[in-house]
Amino acid sequence: MGLVDRWIAEEERREAERRRGEEMRPTPLDWLIQYGLNRDNVDAVHDGGCRTAKKSGRRRPATGEQALDALRNQVPPCVHCQLDAVLGIGG
Question: Is the N end or the C end of the chain the one with fewer CB atoms within 10 Å?
Answer without folding.
Answer: N
